Amino acid sequence: LSDPLKYSSHWSGGYSFDSRSCDVPVELIVSNLDQMFEINEMKNILFNVFCDHVMVLHISMSLQPDGS
User: Fold this and answer.
1) pTM above 0.85, yes or no
2) How many C-beta atoms surround the C-beta of residue 1 within 10 A?
3) How far apart are CA 53 and CA 8, in angstroms?
4) Do 44 and 59 contact (CB within 8 A), yes or no?
5) Which among 1, 13, 5, 12 has a CA at the least distance from the CA of 51?
6) Mind listing the pLDDT tens digit for each residue in 23-55?
7) In the chain, what are the domain boundaries?
8) Which of 18, 42, 46, 61 has the smallest number of CB atoms closer than 10 Å to its CB?
């Protein structure tokens, strides 16, 4: 995808930066993803969206019991 950001929501609020928390890993769960994309394509979209802001170590995806 040439522009994965057009598929994402943008947060327009402000943020504060604390340099002491730069190396603290976090686990982020993203849900309610568009099912029209293949899994590998969605992983690529998520990676491209987040890597502009944070270091991405791993992306895993799983299907919910309802198949979504």
Assistant:
1) no
2) 11
3) 14
4) no
5) 5
6) 778 888 888 888 888 889 999 999 999 988 888
7) 28-62
8) 18
